[in-house]
């Protein structure tokens, strides 16, 4: 055949499926069908023991508690100690989520860990988490989508359960950003923090996770990024690890306005009006962005808004599940509530979906 192409023996239009038993000479693959719907069945969280007030941060960046709160709304954050590793925090949060869902770890088919601060290139944190949880050899992998990673994980878990590839999936957002934050960087030192949140996604009798709206704007990738390549840091014999840097004003403008449109798209795709929304759980970047989003979306007064950033700081991939767990624990959200999850960050990646709370 000219050009070395491969001749196909049989073909049929995509809209014309093969008859029962398949076409002659063609093997018809068997496919699995999962649950008609999926939902979040349980939520868990782990917050490091050490509480760090602004007073411990501001001297190194020539600032003040008042300035930090005006810029971000943050009063305190949590920093992990040596024992509170990415894996250890993930396991603790996952166990709480499994207990809340009433699911045995051996029933878990897949573990997804969203993080940018697991500092081993390989193996993934998820494989170690799956083992520590006591799963029966569950599939496990990490997702690197920065602050949007958890919402990416929920979208994949929804598709895995509905597609038949898994029945129960543990999705974790976890960070130890204190490892990769410069204490003297005035733009980031007061923002980033540590923690882990987890959910169990499994079959649902009714639609409980709406379609994801996600994407990226890689043209602006350098608005939030690791300052330098690991190889460059090693070659320069740098005194500190490569750390996160951010162009705060540009990120604020992008998130405040672009993400409002994404939020409305997620509501539209789920067939939910903004008046039917009970809770708004955005990435806990800072309170000013949350306020700007609420205004641009024209959120009704009855919608409860997550404000976990005030006490927990910006925990990147962990921020949405941590905020979700806190709203449930504090009674601001209850079973059956309709919530909009939206996250955005480095990349610039984003993801949003409407969910019904367990």
Write down the overall mean pLDDT: 91
Task: Report Rg.
Answer: 22 Å
Largest sheet: 5 strands, mixed
User: Within the largest sheet, what's the order of strands?
Assistant: 1-7-6-4-5
**At the fourth CATH level, what is the homologous superfamily of the largest domain?**
Thiolase/Chalcone synthase
Q: Helix count?
A: 9
Q: Helices and strands, in N-to-C order?
A: EEHEHEHEHEEEEHEHEHEHHEE
How many domains make up the 3D coordinates?
A: 2
What report would you give on this structure?
The protein has 358 residues and is an alpha/beta fold. It folds into two domains: 37-204, Thiolase/Chalcone synthase (Peroxisomal Thiolase, Chain A, domain 1), CATH 3.40.47.10; 213-356, 3-Layer(aba) Sandwich (Peroxisomal Thiolase, Chain A, domain 1). Helix content is 29%, strand content 22%. The protein has nine helices and 14 strands. It has helices at 65-72, 86-101, 125-133, 149-163, 230-235, 248-270, 287-297, 309-312, 319-330, and strands at 37-46, 50-53, 76-79, 110-114, 139-143, 169-176, 194-204, 213-216, 224-226, 244-246, 279-282, 304-305, 338-345, 349-356. The strands form four sheets. The chain has a five-stranded mixed sheet, with helices on both faces. Helix 7 (287-297) links the parallel strand 11 and strand 12. The radius of gyration is 22 Å and the shape is globular.
């Amino acid at each position: 055949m000219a050009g070395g192409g491969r001749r196909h023996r049989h073909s049929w239009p995509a809209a014309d499926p093969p008859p029962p038993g398949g076409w002659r000479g063609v093997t018809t693959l068997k496919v699995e069908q999962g649950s008609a719907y999926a939902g979040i069945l349980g939520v868990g969280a782990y917050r490091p023991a050490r509480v760090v007030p602004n007073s411990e941060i501001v001297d190194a960046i020539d600032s003040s508690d008042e300035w930090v709160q005006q810029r971000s709304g943050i009063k305190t954050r949590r920093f992990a100690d040596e024992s509170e590793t990415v894996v250890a925090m993930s396991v603790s949060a996952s166990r709480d989520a499994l207990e809340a869902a009433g699911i045995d770890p051996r029933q878990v088919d897949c573990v997804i860990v969203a993080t940018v601060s697991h500092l081993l290139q390989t193996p993934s944190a998820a494989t170690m988490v799956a083992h520590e949880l006591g799963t029966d050899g569950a599939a496990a992998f990490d997702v690197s989508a920065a602050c949007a990673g958890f919402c990416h994980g929920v979208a994949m878990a929804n598709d895995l359960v509905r597609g038949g590839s898994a029945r129960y999936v543990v999705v974790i957002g976890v960070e130890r950003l204190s490892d990769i934050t410069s204490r003297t960087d005035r733009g980031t030192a007061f923002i980033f923090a540590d923690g882990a949140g987890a959910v169990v996604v499994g079959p649902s009798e009714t639609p409980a996770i709406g379609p994801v709206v996600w994407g990226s704007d890689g043209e602006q990738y350098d608005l939030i990024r690791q300052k330098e390549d690991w190889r460059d840091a090693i070659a320069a014999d740098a005194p500190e690890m490569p750390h996160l840097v951010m162009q705060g004003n540009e990120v604020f403008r992008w998130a405040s306005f672009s993400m409002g449109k994404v939020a409305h798209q997620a509501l539209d795709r789920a067939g939910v009006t903004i008046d039917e929304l009970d809770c708004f759980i955005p990435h806990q970047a800072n309170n000013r962005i949350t306020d700007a989003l609420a205004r641009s979306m024209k959120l009704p007064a009855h919608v409860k808004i997550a404000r976990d950033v005030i006490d927990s700081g910006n925990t990147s991939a962990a921020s949405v599940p941590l905020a979700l767990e806190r709203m449930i624990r504090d009674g601001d959200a209850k079973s059956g509530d309709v919530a909009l999850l939206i996250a955005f960050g480095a990349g610039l990646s984003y993801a949003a979906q409407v969910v019904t709370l367990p």
